[in-house]
Amino acid sequence: xxxxxxxxxxxxxxxxxxxxxxxxxxxxxxxxxxxxxxxxxxxxxxxxxxxxxxxxxxxxxxxxxxxxxxxxxxxxxxxxxxxxxxxxxxxxxxxxxxxxxxxxxxxxxxxxxxxxxxxxxxxxxxxxxxxxxxxxxxxxxxxxxxxxxxxxxxxxxxxxxxxxxxxxxxxxxxxxxxxxxxxxxxxxxxxxxxxxxxxxxxxxxxxxxxxxxxxxxxxxxxxxxxxxxxxxxxxxxxxxxxxxxxxxxxxxxxxxxxxxxxxxxxxxxxxxxxxxxxxxxxxxxxxxxxxxxxxxxxxxxxxxxxxxxxxxxxxxxxxxxxxxxxxxxxxxxxxxxxxxxxxxxxxxxxxxxxxxxxxxxxxxxxxxxxxxxxxxxxxxxxxxxxxxxxxxxxxxxxxxxxxxxxxxxxxxxxxxxxxxxxxxxxxxxxxxxxxxxxxxxxxxxxxxxxxxxxxxxxxxxxxxxxxxxxxxxxxxxxxxxxxxxxxxxxxxxxxxxxxxxxxxxxxxxxxxxxxxxxxxxxxxxxxxxxxxxxxxxxxxxxxxxxxxxxxxxxxxxxxxxxxxxxxxxxxxxxxxxxxxxxxxxxxxxxxxxxxxxxxxxxxxxxxxxxxxxxxxxxxxxxxxxxxxxxxxxxxxxxxxxxxxxxxxxxxxxxxxxxxxxxxxxxxxxxxxxxxxxxxxxxxxxxxxxxxxxxxxxxxxxx
Length: 702
Description:
The chain has 702 residues and is α+β, with helices and mostly antiparallel strands. It has three domains: 7-326, ADP-ribosylation/Crystallin J1 (ADP-ribosylglycohydrolase fold), CATH 1.10.4080.10; 374-426 and 433-529, Jelly Rolls, CATH 2.60.120; 549-701, Exo-inulinase, domain 1 (Jelly Rolls), CATH 2.60.120. The strands form five sheets. Strands 14, 16, 17, 19, 24, 25, 26, 28 and 29 form a nine-stranded antiparallel sheet that branches. A hairpin with a 6-residue loop joins strand 16 (555-557) and strand 17. The protein starts with 6 loop residues before the first helix and ends with a strand. Pfam families: ADP_ribosyl_GH.
């Protein structure tokens, strides 16, 4: 089956629909319908500010959906991707108690229970089975909340979407939970080619047993919908027949699935109405609204989302993905849409999408996209500044508009490159992420001043860098003057900032003339090259320099004299830093092992269980190893004079398929050119059942 002509745009709408639903429902997650009506009334729009919460937050629905999908990339683009391989992706990307999931305890949280099974060697699908975990644990809601990605890579192929959703769902769930996941995935896949909601539901029913509880539930909700014009009547019937009191556990799939079916039956072609119904109904609001939002987005497209209030503006494409691959953490809906659509094209036997504008990080190619850019609120801001997306040639661009811009004022737009300062106030889900841009890299941006502008402007790259008490400080690059009709490529090789992470990047516009009116168009913005950075504790007080490392150890403290001291209680632990954009580079540090069977450096880190390691082994060996899931391959080895409490100079270089290391005067070299070689990834400090410290870690070009 050929892919839809508007496949990419529809995926983008599905991703946005997912985000809108999750962020809309998250502030009152778990509330009953009665409490929502008493405290908030019908949910017609975002209510986070009324409840004193942030809008764009870490959440399992978003992070899990777009992390577990990476199993396709890691284990082969195949319609036969197995539960076992998806389970391996869980072990690579999940950090217990920190990333993606609700870590509520064994037997309390279904996903935590499944992860513990995987960790103990119980491979998927047994890890999520009723036989191992019992029906109550296995039939909670989690299987269906993560399935949207599997549908989006299978447009118009509901059987494939259901097969992938089952494989993914069975890592942690079983029974009715997996039936619900398969049904919804099939519906979403079919939504690419049909807007007939009854046909979509019939398609979903075709992939699950006709006598299962989910199928009977769907039949009941359809009948109640036909008999009752008011959805509130049907909601009460759902509560009376399938309510939380009828099913054990914390958050059972059955009651919530019923609300989702109800919402799309009563509002099949009205995005806002579907969100109003599913959110006002209560229970697991962010999960239910996220699934409904994705289905509505896929079926109705961007026009359907934009038919009502401004859902997109407050989100500005932003999303956060907490995982052991920290460079993927600060993300946006455009990048995710391209990633998902490329996977879908490869599954369909077609080439992945070409990277727009020669691979620019920010290219604004999709309608209405801003990729996280929002107006900067400096004290001297131009009151009329506005940020949007406009047609530009045969593509699109970011627009920074201003009016009556005068000396002393600025019109600026920035986008996140690391965790926002408010991340420490986000509840339930911790953000594991690293910065995306670094000192030593060269940032470039093409900017254009339209001919109808009034007055020349000075345009510059701008950063917000963490400083004392973790406050963001504005740092500007050199300006370029643009007269009306002019254009330029701004360029800035970023300097060191005393180990502080860069929190935001953007464009600032000022003028030296009496008044300027108009706009500056940003065609693209990118950065390239290896970092040239020394990671260490800054002189200024704060925590974000340490939070810029993905924490995969038992204890990571800033209270010891060295900048970095890590401790691991059981097995191997790692803290990592950097992104998949890092390919060839060199690392230099002094390592002190205080206790442990081995410790050392990791390079080209792609999660907890995918990296190259330089190990100082307690029994007197120096090794270069390749860690890929449960398999550890020794690529090179030499005798080594191991000692505790001794600072050992270590330098590592990775270039192409060659890894070379000099540790304590001992040299090693290895080559890995195979199909499973790691081509990119950040750096890490590793310790096995002990403690390790380092004061600085310097990364530079190879």
